[in-house]
């Protein structure tokens, strides 16, 4: 269950990171509220997940999910470059997340 909560926390991390772009420096009230809500949910779920998972592993996976998701949505939503090198390094993060899950007994 902790791995599922950690994954959901990572999704909310993506949400608040993308929300920062839409909030225009936290000056737009609705996107700012959504950003803050997503941030709180992400942190609470991370805090619950680390009760059963090593903090180093959980934090690396949480930030990795956030980084991969935010970079991917940046390409789709904000027309950020999708160069081969960028996609390669994003995939390296994905392999790292999967590897941490496998070596941490997270089946």
TrEMBL record:
Top-level taxon of origin: Archaea
Keyword Zinc-finger set for record: no
Major site of localization recorded for this protein: membrane
Segments passing through the bilayer: 33-50, 57-78, 84-103
InterPro entries per the UniProt record, alphabetical: EmrE-like (IPR037185), Small_drug/metabolite_transptr (IPR000390), Small_multidrug_res (IPR045324)
Coiled-coil ranges from the UniProt annotation: none
Pfam family name, one: Multi_Drug_Res
An individual GO BP term: transmembrane transport
Membrane topology, as annotated: Multi-pass membrane protein
Keyword tRNA processing: no
Compartment annotation: Cell membrane
GO CC, alphabetical: plasma membrane
Record's keyword terms, sorted: Cell membrane, Membrane, Transmembrane, Transmembrane helix, Transport
PANTHER family: GUANIDINIUM EXPORTER, SMR FAMILY PROTON-DEPENDENT DRUG EFFLUX TRANSPORTER SUGE
Protein name per its UniProtKB record: DMT family transporter
Highest classification ranks of the organism: Archaea, Methanobacteriati, Methanobacteriota, Stenosarchaea group, Halobacteria
